[in-house]
User: Fold this.
Amino acid sequence: MMTATLDTQALKKLDQAHHLHPFTDFEDYAQHGGRIVSRAEHVYIYDSDGNKIQDGMSGLWCCNLGYSQERIKQAVTEQLAQLPFYNNFFRCSNQPAAELAARLCQVTPERFQHVFFTNSGSEANDTQIKLVHRYFDLLGKPDKKLIISRHNAYHGSTIAASSLGGMSAMHKQTMGLDYVHHIQQPHWFEEGGDLDPEAFGIAAARELEKKIDELGEDRVAAFIAEPVQGAGGVIVPPESYWPEVKRILDERDILLISDEVICGFGRTGKWFGFETYGTEPDLVTFAKAVTNGYMPLGGSLISQKISDVLLSGGGEFAHGLTYSGHPASCAAGLATLDILEETRIIEQGVVDLAPYFASRLLELADHPIVGQVRVQGLFAAVELVRDKSSRERLAPESAAAVHTRDTAITQGLMVRQTGDAMIMAPPFVTERSEIDFLVDQLAIALDRTGQHYGVMPSPV
Ligand SMILES: *Cc1c(COP(=O)(O)O)cnc(C)c1O
Assistant:
């Protein structure tokens, strides 16, 4: 049982003493500790010190419908009472897993007819590699094993997923897989130089063509990419990028894996990011928002081109997780899909709120320390600079963005920072007045940061 009587200081001490946190400097945390989040409602989180903070990040890109969806909570509770667990190995299944697999195929294009469940996005991307390798093996093309990904991509944290990803800090700490190769990211603001965004988008896409030619089409199996890179800094690619990638892939026998762990289920304004950008992936990775973040669940959606091969006489697929298709997680997924479909919140809510969010956020483009504002659906980044035209950064080691983030949190707004960008992914149920709070508090935090670094006058 969770102890309700521990006071906040004692709880923090306990956490500091025993709990190692993900993506955290252990030594720093042991000394300084952190924040204990004790409850959440609608789009607000409450900590054990009594602070109320508006969540501009949907948890960690997952609670797209906020924290008060009773229907999901109830579906999980009822499922735990009915069947808390049984495995899906050895010719067994359960009702929520069977139904969710079918429902996920209904919300994706016709060619997706099969789902493989995992517990996370990382495991789902590991699964994608095995599916791709198996597919080409069964086709009698065992040399097609190489996977191309992009620098600064995020595909998860297991060894295979971090290897697919392009995060240099992660690569430094673990040897990557030798069959994964990386190309340039379509990040015009960071890497575009003198090219205009559209020309840069084409150039970045052609890196894929060059890499395939260099490695050999007979050895390259797949290209994996997020429609919009999320953790990398909400990198909305130039309009020219995806059509050119599509052309390159259409001309070749290379699979496309669309990592929709963030973009999926409405974030970019359509059900999936590949619909926003008009690509036709062979495999789709999902996780996070599929259960509104309430239960761990991920998986791979598999198009018929692949499943036709996997289902025709190849024998056993030697892969699986104890909790693949966990009944309580799948029940959460079903309830989430029910809400998404019945409320039409993607087709109406997001489509209605996104232009308002964009117009309010774009006001910040004139702010003295803002170099670029990127928005796609309810997904955004604000780049901080000292000089708008040269794109020179305000301070080394992203210190200005860290300062802005910490100031915003102190003012009651939870936003994140990646590199020199502030990034946001507000829940779809955020009200207009709450979008106003988000933008207004961010603007104040930017003012404070500008003053702190001496590029804006301090208040008298
Ligand atoms: C979060 C994320 C993952 C990893 O998902 P986990 O559930 O944390 O393993 C993979 N891909 C993308 C795009 C993500 O944002």
